[in-house]
Every structure is written in C-alpha cells, then in structure tokens.
Amino acid sequence: MIDSKTYLSWALITGVLVFVGVWIYAMAEWGFLIGIIFGWIPAFIAGLIGGLLWPVIIALLFIFIFFATQE
Q1: Helices H, strands E: what count in the chain?
Q2: 8 A C-beta contact, residue 15 and residue 48
Q3: Residue 9: CB partners within 8 Å, gap ≥ 6?
Q4: What is the largest CA-CA distance in the chain?
C-alpha cells in the first residue's frame, strides 16, 4: 500500500503540474492579461482535484501511452 507521505508527495507534485498547465492554458485561451489575473482560479481548483486524484491520472496516462504506441 501507499503510505500517507508518499501519497501526499505525489499529490503535491501532480497538483503543481496541473495548476501550472491550466494556468498556461488560461493565458493562451483568454489572453495574457486576463489569463494572469483570473486564470489562477480555475487552475487552483483543477490543481486541487488533480492532486487528490493523482493515481487515476497516472493510470489514465499509462493507458493513453499504451494505446498511442500501438501500431
């Protein structure tokens, strides 16, 4: 089983990566200024959810990689 320190460490890593990705996406979609000012709000929410559900995200990533590499 995964102990709580490992889970929280990976949750933090995944949450930060999701936060940064969503914030960059908000800047790309809404423009730089609006994305910087308001983009952190959906990025924060997505980061929290992504951090809590990191095992599901990792599993889906492995499934995606598996099917993407099939010929």
Answers
A1: 4, 0
A2: yes
A3: none
A4: 44
Rounded to whole angstroms, the Cα distance separating 19 from 54 reads 13
Q: How far is CA 31 from CA 50, 56, 57, 58, in A?
A: 24, 31, 28, 30
| Residue indicated by tokens 């709000």 | 41
- pLDDT tens string 11-70: 999 999 999 999 999 999 999 999 999 999 999 999 999 999 989 988 999 999 999 998
Domain spans, the chain: 4-66
Beta strands in 12-71 (DSSP E): none
Report how far apart, in Å, the C-alpha atoms of 65 and of each of 58, 59, 60, 68, 70 are.
11, 10, 9, 5, 9
